[in-house]
Amino acid sequence: MLETARPPGTPDLFGHPKGLTILFLTETAAYFSAFGMQALLVLYMVQSLGFGTAKASMIFGLYVGCANLTPLLGGWIADRFIGQHRAVTAGALLMAAGHGAMIWNGGLYPGLALVALGNGFFATSLVSRIGALYAADDPRRDRAYMLYYLGINVGSFAAPLCCGWLAQQYGWHAGFGAAAIVMVLGLGFYLSFQGLVPRGGKASARSSGDEMAPQRGAMLLLAAILALVVLFRLGYEQMGNSIALWIDRDVNRNLGSLLVPTPWFQSLNPLFIFLLSPVLAFYWRRRDEGGRTIAPLAKMATGAGFAAVAFLVLAMGAASGAAVSVGFVLGYFLLMTVAELHVFPIGLALVARFSTDRNRSTMIGLWYFVKFLASMAAGALAALGGQVPATMFFAANVALALVVAGLMTGLYRTTASRHDFSAH
């Protein structure tokens, strides 16, 4: 069942409700904390704790997977019992405690567990409130998700630079400490301006089977799309895992007299999101105005194609010999960012279209469940990838992305006459 109409609840700022600014700035702090810690995690386990690369990759994949599994439970609890506002507050406190635990030796496992649990409450209950800021027929709603996606990457961009520099200058625990501090500041900001955001209470009743029956065909189609997103993410999730290790080991990171810290490369993805999001949004808007709208499934298939080219660039770099040029890394991040922008915002908007007041956080939790499945599989894939030459590993990812592009194209063509997802 599609979302019910919700009246705009706050005055506008830059053409959108002020609550949108509060939501994405709060998420910016959360992403700073999460990406700051993740940019250090694999390297910290290998270089400081003495873990082997296979063990570190598996732990990284397990953590990211759990952090994307808990939102399904946290979203359900928010919808049924505690409401979205309390879920956001509890989640932020748990995440801050988890990052803080990693300041001390021996805090790795409890810290990761607390962050993963906190994310379950925080992630779904924050983003699910975007729709409540707009009426159901407000044309700004779809653009709001793109703006939100763009805004949260401020944190993703700054975190590896800041936490990576602190870790290099003052030790690993200084980087983890910065992640904890920013999470606390983000919670304080959210609580200070909570009046601009709908609180999002718990659901008062369950949806009946009859209500959901007319949407079963669309939900099956959504399930097929999410299955393909899992396959797409198998390659995408290598960015902070096997690819980070490869950059640290094989890429020439010398820039004059400066040895570029490996975590800094993780800032390239959000940087390219800043640069490319307005370009893509403008292009898609012009297509829409000219009556040549690109269907969501077609956009997602195009994204998988760009991912294949991105891994092809890495395979060429790995085949070039020792001390790989940083140009191959830049090309990979550029192309993979284009791929991401064609897949993730579009997929999230499709999931949100079929949420209701009764299951809003739970449905967003389903999107994170997709990330959980992919992260778990990606960790295992990275561990296996460490046992084969890098060229072979990257070539396998090229093949995987091409399979996803082909299947997504086939799904689009078979549903071209439907308006659930094939049309804008």
Descriptive report:
- The chain is mostly helical.
- The protein has a single domain, classed as Growth Hormone, Chain: A (Up-down Bundle), CATH 1.20.1250.
- It has a two-stranded antiparallel ribbon. A two-stranded antiparallel sheet has the order 3-4.
- The N terminus is likely disordered.
Distance between the termini: 18 Å
Q: How many beta-strand segments?
A: 4
Number of helices: 13
- As a whole number of angstroms, the C-alpha radius of gyration is 21 Å
Which term fits the overall shape? globular
Enter the CATH topology name. Answer: Growth Hormone, Chain: A
Domain module tally: 1
CATH superfamily: MFS general substrate transporter like domains
Structural class: mainly alpha
Biggest sheet: strand arrangement: 1-2
Helix fraction by DSSP (H/I, runs of at least 4): over 70%
- H/E topology pattern: EEHHHHHHHHEEHHHHH
Brief description of this entry?
With 424 residues, the chain is mostly helical. It contains 13 helices and 4 strands.
List keywords for this structure.
424 residues, two-stranded antiparallel ribbon, two-stranded antiparallel sheet, mainly alpha, disordered N terminus, 2% strand, Growth Hormone, Chain: A
Which SSEs are present, and which pair or pack?
Blueprint (H helix, E strand, L loop, with lengths): L11 E2 L2 E2 H30 L5 H49 L6 H20 L12 H31 L1 H21 L16 H4 L3 H21 L5 H9 L3 E2 L2 E2 L8 H22 L6 H23 L7 H28 L6 H26 L4 H25 L10
Antiparallel strand pairs: 1-2, 3-4
